[in-house]
Each structure stands twice: as C-alpha cells, then as structure tokens.
Amino acid sequence: MTHVVRPATPADVAGMHEMIIELAVYEDGLDEVVASEEDLHRALFGGTAISDTPANTPSGTPGLYAFVIDAAEGGLAGMAIWMLNYSTWEGQYGVYLEDLFVRQQYRGQGYGRALMEQLARTCVQHNYTRFQWWVLDWNRPAIEVYRRLGAVPMDEWTVYRLTGDALRELGS
C-alpha cells in the first residue's frame, strides 16, 4: 500500500495538535503539554504569507516543519514534526525529528515508514548529512522499527536539558 506524505497545511494544525495530545498520553506525559493549536500554527506558518503573526524565531520565519499522511476516511493518520540542525564538523545541515506519531488504528501498515522515508528523502535531496531523533528507552516497538530502518543508537551521548527556573536563572 502506498501512503501519500505531504507537507502540513494550516488546515492540519487541529489534527496535529490532537495527535500531540495522543502522543503525550502514550508517553504518560499529558500533564507536560502546554502547547496550543495557536502555538503550533505560529511555529509552522508564522511569518509567512498564510499567517497574520510572525514566528517566534530570531528571523521571524518558521523554524519548524511537518509532514502528514491523510487517513482514507478523513482526518490525519500520522505526522512527523521536524526541524533543521547543523553539524559544525561536517559543515552541513541535518534533520532533527521532534515527533513521529501514527494513530493507533494505522500502526503496522507502513505509515510510519512512509514518513521516515520522506524525511530521509528530504535529507538526500538537500545534501543533509544527518537524520536524528530521540526515543524513550522503554518504547520497544519504536526502537525495533528504527533498527529495521538501519538506525543506530547514539549510546555514547547523554542528553542534557535546562528548563524552568534553571533556564531563567542562567538566561538572566
């Protein structure tokens, strides 16, 4: 079965926001989601001809991108939200996948693979040298999919994060 992956449009934002909530439920992190549909719209489309508000980026243009797959019966079956990163060692951009989500009823039917293939094609088409993402250690189904695609874990790296008071203190 061929799945058509397309760039997200403003009309997809509500469905994408629903999937962000579904992902948060799956990852037992619903209480951490504070992003609104408006936040998502602004991140994806702010500062463009189709938006009245600027993006919240230094350039005022979007720094976030998304691909979606439509469900045959309407609505969205899945999405990939991504952004560019940059390797100073390679001197090239890459893709960082923030969220890959396929709704439960569509899993195991190639939707996730189709989204990953589109992201890999984006890298190849633009000569991006890396395609990276994080996955929770307990998410065995996702890990198995990623390994079948040829992805390898970056075990020698530890992720660090500043948020909340620590971020505000450092940035003040």
Description:
The N and C termini lie far apart (about 55 Å). Helix 1 (about 15-25) crosses helix 2. The chain is about 35% helix and about 20% strand. It contains five helices and five strands. The chain is of the alpha+beta class and about 170 residues long. It is globular, with a radius of gyration of 17 Å. The chain has helices at about 15-25, 35-45, 110-125, 140-150, 165-170; strands at about 5, 65-70, 75-85, 90-100, 130-135. Strands 1-2-3-4-5 form a five-stranded mixed β-sheet. The model has no long low-confidence stretch (mean pLDDT about 95).
Average pLDDT? 93
**What's the helical proportion of residues?**
25-40%
How would you classify the helix and strand content by structural class?
A: alpha+beta
The total count of strands amounts to 5
- Indicate the low-confidence ranges by residue numbers: none
With strands numbered from the N-terminus, the spatial order across the biggest sheet is 1-2-3-4-5
List SSEs in N-to-C order.
EHHEEEHEHH
Give the helix tally.
5
Write down the Rg: 17 Å
Distance between the termini: 53 Å
Q: What fraction of residues sit in β-strands?
A: 15-25%
Shape: globular
Query: Main sheet, how many strands, which sense, barrel?
Result: 5 strands, mixed
